[in-house]
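New to this. Please check this protein:
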Amino acid sequence: MSDRCREEATTPFTVTLPSGDTVSAMAYPAAGGPPAGTTMILAHGAGAPQTHPFMTAFARLLSARGIDVVTFNFLYMERGRRVPDPKARLQACYRAVIAAARARAGAGERRVVIGGKSMGGRIATQVAAAQDVDGSEADVDGADAGVDGLVLLGYPLHPPGRPDKPRTAHLPAVAAPMLFVQGERDAFGTPDELRPVLATCAEAELVTVAGGDHSFKMRGKDAPRAEEVYETVTGKIVGWMEGQRLLARAVG
């Protein structure tokens, strides 16, 4: 399917939050044959919306592999603000999107994988950790946050230059399998910094993007194009999902 056809196949929709506010979301339907029976929800990073090329590239690549993908804006981004919302509001937004995505998928067996870029992935892990520690938390806003897996694209282990400020205390509480895709030069946490943390988690795997930074960009005139890097990473993600039995059928 051409990029133009895929773009035309996307479907915008609106998610209503517990506060009554609304945020915009985008569905990227599975393409290329029967769907894999999995919905992946990807949240954006702190500084760019769901329409950022990084987000749209991964959404389209994954949907081309037979996975239904949903992206969305957090409320602060929807309103054009630069400073992210408080943690509780970000989590409530993510839970509302999970509920909306499930409602759109309808009845039947369907796996739900959540994650995202940088901050979006961090919030996804917090949502999953809260659900696994105390399932009653989902009742606060009526959204069932239980998920089957998580994919984290450039996890923000700590602020740049501040390894003394780790963002990892909740990770061991996540029971669902997690895949961390981390650039070798990530200023928010290198793979070497991340490995001992993942050793404390129930089920976590790491994919290293050799030479990549926080957004998987590489240095040098001979560095591969972003599209090539994203394609390779997508293959790793799909392979991991197949190994975790998160897909109802094999995908290409």
Residues 61 and 231 are 7 Å apart (CA to CA). The radius of gyration is 17 Å. The beta strands are 11-16, 22-28, 38-43, 68-72, 111-117, 149-153, 178-183, 204-209. The domain at 3-243 is CATH 3.40.50.1820 (Rossmann fold).
